[in-house]
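Deliverable D2.4 — example input (structure tokens):
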């Protein structure tokens, strides 16, 4: 298989689908809406998120990935089938070649099971792609050369760090700390300090507007509305960027420590390449304000966020086979 028709990033937070010649055609939350009374899945992705948000009765949300692992395989299988069919449409003449990138914590058994699900969903050939390799390719890095590149992919469930050279990871590490953990820590801090409960959409808004992991010259403040955890009544609170920085300090410091640890294990030759070429951040979590400054302070190496970081893995998954085929690195 020298090319891919469909590349799918099955992320903890988002499902991103790349289609050859069109680019990313689907980017939706990895959520399934389940009807408890009918024991039936009723929607996937954005439609599922909307249903769950507006139906407080028998419709509940299922998130099939937790902390980079598959928590519900049957739901994962059905979701994969749905998105493959959505990408293919009804007029596909031949079966498509599909490349998949699963959460880094997925086991070999889970990878084989999802591969089989893709075949059952109509794939002609299926390839499972390493997450950091896909992220690097999607970020526009030429990993075929014998030089070192350091990629930090901060997804929804895991942060994956790897030094890549000649198409493969040389040294890597993975942490179960990423976007979902950031949100949990923000929500916990707001509940603890302000007796305020807010939903995940509000948490995401707080993270985007005043979230940071590096001390800002000027403290930013926003007003949010939520439910008082003591009285159950509506309550308004002022949240500052400094509060969020403190809430995220442990997690972001652990990510920086892990990056530093990978660099310490890297050979002098590859480390010199990385010092020259810089560190590249991918994944939706890479958009957290201050991450580049934090990593530059900790490592002394220029750090940059890839263009469209949340779609890098899907794009790289789609382009992987053609690139690796040129290297002669894949046995199909």
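Example output (designed residues):
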């Amino acid at each position: 298989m020298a090319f891919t028709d469909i590349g799918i990033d099955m992320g903890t937070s988002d499902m991103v689908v790349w289609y050859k010649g069109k680019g990313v055609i689907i980017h939706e939350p990895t959520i399934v809406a389940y009807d408890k009374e009918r024991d039936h899945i009723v929607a996937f992705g954005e439609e599922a998120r909307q249903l769950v948000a507006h139906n407080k009765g028998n419709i509940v949300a299922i998130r099939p990935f937790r902390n980079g692992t598959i928590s519900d395989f049957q739901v994962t299988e059905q979701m994969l089938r749905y998105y493959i069919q959505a990408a293919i449409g009804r007029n596909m003449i031949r079966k498509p070649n599909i490349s998949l990138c699963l959460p880094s914590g997925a086991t070999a058994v889970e990878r084989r099971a999802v591969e089989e699900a893709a075949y059952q969903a109509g794939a002609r050939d299926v390839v499972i792609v390493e997450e950091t390799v896909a992220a690097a390719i999607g970020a526009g890095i030429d990993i075929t050369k014998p030089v070192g590149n350091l990629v930090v992919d901060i997804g929804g469930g895991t942060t994956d760090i790897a030094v890549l050279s000649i198409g493969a990871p040389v040294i890597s590490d993975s942490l179960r700390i990423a976007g979902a953990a950031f949100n949990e820590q923000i929500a916990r801090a707001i509940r603890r300090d302000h007796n305020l409960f807010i939903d995940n959409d509000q948490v995401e808004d707080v993270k985007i507007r005043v979230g940071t992991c590096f001390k800002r010259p000027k403290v930013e403040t926003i007003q949010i509305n939520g439910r008082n955890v003591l009285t159950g009544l509506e309550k308004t609170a002022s949240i500052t960027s400094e509060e969020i920085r403190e809430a995220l300090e442990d997690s972001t410091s652990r990510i920086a420590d892990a990056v530093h640890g990978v660099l310490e294990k890297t050979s002098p030759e590859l480390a010199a390449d990385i010092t020259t070429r810089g560190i590249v951040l991918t994944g939706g979590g890479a958009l957290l304000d201050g991450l580049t400054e934090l990593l530059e302070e900790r490592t002394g190496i220029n750090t940059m966020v890839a263009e469209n970081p949340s779609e890098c893995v899907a794009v790289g998954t789609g382009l992987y086979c053609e690139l690796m085929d040129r290297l002669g690195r894949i046995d199909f």
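Residues 284 and 310 are 4 Å apart (CA to CA).
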